[in-house]
Amino acid sequence: MPESLVHLIFCARCVVVAILLFGTQSPEVLAIIEGVFVEDPVMLIFIKIANNMKGWFESE
């Protein structure tokens, strides 16, 4: 299974568990959803940019 698919399944489970534990109106669920759907894609974009810039710097 591709790593991105495993990550997506794990994130979906985290959201479901948070909703079951805290309810749909809690700030905890909002934080989980924000982290999964906003922070993770932004972090992955920054990692891709950093990996693409490896050749820009001298190796030691």
How would you summarize what this structure contains?
The chain has 60 residues and is mainly α.
Word description of this protein:
The chain is mainly α and 60 residues long. The chain is built from 2 helices and no strands. The protein has helices spanning 3-22, 27-52. The termini are far apart. The mean pLDDT is 81.
* Beta-strand share of residues: under 5%
Indicate the multimeric state.
single chain
List segments where confidence is low: pLDDT < 50 over at least 5 consecutive residues. none
Question: Quick one: biggest sheet?
Answer: none
Distance between the termini: 36 Å
Any idea what the shape is?
Answer: elongated
Number of strands: 0
The assigned structural class equals: mainly alpha
Q: Could you spell the SSE succession in H and E letters?
A: HH
Instruction: Output the number of helix runs.
Output: 2
- Helix fraction by DSSP (H/I, runs of at least 4): over 70%
Average pLDDT, rounded to a whole number, is 81
Write down the Rg: 16 Å
Secondary structure elements and pairings:
Blueprint: H1 3-22, H2 27-52
Keywords for this entry:
60 residues
